[in-house]
Amino acid sequence: MPPRPSVGGVILRPLTLDTVALEGTPGGWEVAVVVEPGPYPQLPKGGLEAGETHRDALHRELREEAGLEGVQILRELATLERLNYARTKWQVTRYYLGISTQQEAPPPLEPGYRLEWHPLLGGQVPDLFWPEQTRLLRQVARQLQRNGTPF
């Protein structure tokens, strides 16, 4: 089965912000979830285009699917693999952790997509369409609970 390289993001936004350190208060983080046409909540993600780096593709996908611009990418989180929805390609997605200080985003470029922000802690993030994304979010939340920071 042919591989399809892609990129995705766990994008956090602090509820209160220390603009110097770009840190929020422990527990005071929201995560960006995009909802595709229909009830399909998931992390923003998408395929790489010819000649794109993973980070360039992530910034493009964030703008297209979520309307987010200027996200600070902090580090790589994980590479997750699975069959794509059509079961025609092997999806290899490199996920990054990023932070947004954008309070309001313009509408996503992709028709029918919308951005939602959900508190990372307290069980308020909906189960995502892709189970591996839900597991990844739980790992980030555990990091936040253990260390007081998701970074």
Task: Give an overview in words.
The protein has helices at 54-66, 131-147; strands spanning 3-14, 29-36, 40-42, 45-47, 72-83, 90-99, 114-119. By secondary structure, the chain is an alpha+beta fold. Strands 1, 2, 3, 4, 5, 6 and 7 form a 7-stranded mixed sheet that branches. The model is unreliable at 19-24 (pLDDT under 50).
Number of strands: 7
Largest sheet: 7 strands, mixed
Beta fraction: 35-45%
Spatial separation of the terminal alpha carbons: 35 Å
Q: Which series of helices and strands comes N to C?
A: EEEEHEEEH
pLDDT under 50 segments (min length 5)? 19-24
Rg for CA atoms: 15 Å
Coarse morphology: globular
**Helical fraction:** 10-25%
Query: How many individual helices?
Result: 2
Class from secondary-structure proportions: alpha+beta
Task: Please state the oligomeric state of the protein chains shown.
Answer: single chain
Mean pLDDT: 88
